[in-house]
Amino acid sequence: MSAGVKKDFPATKVMSGFMELLPEEQIEFDLMKDKILETFHSFGYTALDTPVMERLEILRAKDVGETATQIYEIEPRGEQTESKSGLRFDLTVPLARYVAEHFADLSFPFRRCHIAKVYRGERAQKGRFREFYQCDVDVIGHGSLSIRYDAEIPSIIYQLFKKLDFGKFTIRVNNRKLLQGLVDSLGCEASTESILGVIDRIEKISSEQFGEQLKELGLTGEMTDKLIKFFEIKGTNAEVLDGLKSFNVDNQDYIDGLSELVTAAEFMKALGVEEDYYKIDPVIVRGLSYYTGTVYETVLDDYPKLGSVCSGGRYDNLAEHYTKEKLPGVGISIGLTRLFHQIREIGLVECSKKTAADVIIVPKEDANIPCALSVSQLLRAGGFKVDVLLEDMNIKKKFKYVDRKDSRFTIVIGREEEDSSSVTLSYKGEGGKFEKLQVAQSELADKMKGLC
Amino acid sequence: MSAGVKKDFPATKVMSGFMELLPEEQIEFDLMKDKILETFHSFGYTALDTPVMERLEILRAKDVGETATQIYEIEPRGEQTESKSGLRFDLTVPLARYVAEHFADLSFPFRRCHIAKVYRGERAQKGRFREFYQCDVDVIGHGSLSIRYDAEIPSIIYQLFKKLDFGKFTIRVNNRKLLQGLVDSLGCEASTESILGVIDRIEKISSEQFGEQLKELGLTGEMTDKLIKFFEIKGTNAEVLDGLKSFNVDNQDYIDGLSELVTAAEFMKALGVEEDYYKIDPVIVRGLSYYTGTVYETVLDDYPKLGSVCSGGRYDNLAEHYTKEKLPGVGISIGLTRLFHQIREIGLVECSKKTAADVIIVPKEDANIPCALSVSQLLRAGGFKVDVLLEDMNIKKKFKYVDRKDSRFTIVIGREEEDSSSVTLSYKGEGGKFEKLQVAQSELADKMKGLC
Question: For residue B55, which residues of chain A lie inside 8 Å, CB to CB?
Answer without folding.
Answer: 10-11, 15
